[in-house]
Design a protein that fits this description.
Layout (H helix, E strand, L loop, with lengths): L1 H15 L11 E2 L3 H4 L13 E2 L14 E3 L4 E3 L5 E10 L2 E9 L9 E8 L6 E2 L13 H4 L3 E9 L5 E8 L4 E8 L6 E5 L18 E2 L1 E3 L5 E3 L6 E5 L5 E5 L5 E3 L37 E4 L4 E3 L2 E9 L14 E8 L7 E4 L10 H4 L7 E9 L2 E8 L3 E8 L2
Antiparallel strand pairs: 1-2, 2-26, 3-4, 5-6, 6-7, 7-8, 9-10, 10-11, 11-12, 13-16, 14-15, 16-17, 17-18, 19-21, 20-21, 21-22, 22-23, 24-25, 25-26
Amino acid sequence: MRKVFLGLFAAFVLGGCQGAGDAGAGKSTVDSAAAASAPDSTGWALVNFEKVDSVNPVLQPGTGGFIDGIRHQRVSWEEKDVFNPAIVVRDGKVYMLYRAQDKIGKPAGTSRIGLAVSGDGLHFTREAAPVLYPAEDAWKKYEWEGGCEDPRVVQDAQGLYYMTYTAYDGNLARLMVATSPDLVHWTKKGPAFARAYGGKYIDKWSKSGSIVSTYEPDGRVVATKVGGKYWMYWGDQFIWAATSDDLVDWTPVEKHPGEADPVALRGQALAMPDLKIVVPTRSKHFDSDLVESGPPAMLTPKGILLMYNSRNVPSFGDTALAEGTYAASEVLLDGADPLKMVHRLGGYFMKPDKPYEITGQVNEVCFLEGLALFKGQWLLYYGTADSKIAVAARAAN
């Protein structure tokens, strides 16, 4: 299976960045002029996506309701906003696990994880009730009442699904792990970093866990060890890394004694000065203010491809982009040393340019979280203005 995957990947990535061809009617080309300016943008990056205008946004706030076990009342759990989805291909269908907010929780509505299913990757039917949410359990103190946010999902070699998600108590974000055999019934495993360094990071800001995986030809995204360990990129000030033996308990990678940081620490990083920064921010660029992991990182013949999200502040970033713009880019890391950057796009390959991406709960946002190889196409799913969900596509060869 590994040889088949490598051959398929080489066929569409090594030549695909020079032009994906006609991805179908009803689509608009994603602005990738800045990305194309990078000398290494061909040969390794997965760009040239087209937003599927004919169906976008593919998911909007809904009318579903369920009896919340904490409030003990019926809650319209997705009536405010839906965004930031994980994507799984299973049994010839696309499953979307998405973040949804109600209008009553604090600070901006309690978040829960919903499930929607599609036969074509474009038209989705959603379940009436969420599948992962705050409850009267051991993790309520971390999840209530901000909620469960921003899932990313992979599976292991036996087919068990692992979700990384953010628990938010209204003050602190914590990266969490849950498992499921079927994407419907989830078992919470708790904070990803609970056992690392004697609990050193349990009360530090952590989120956005992107596990290094193999994207198989049948659409499965399978967590894959590098050097005998599972690897995960995480964080939303800079991008850091962590390792694991079991996909549940993770150990953040710290710097060697005396190792200098590539950029000055700021924001959440000031409280975690021992962490090794893998992907830093860049002044005078679109990714000046923060960088944050996107979909599960992809192990390829060229290295580890990581799509990432970024936020811009024009005063020290890209003056052509609005304040707070979230645009997306890519970095390639060494396949034998996941801490070493090999290439990085000079610019973004996606930015907000549609009304539903420009205006919403948070303006000027395209936030990538789900990537799927499905029926001969790459489908890239993203949150728009923290309010809706859209998809972009490109051919797989």
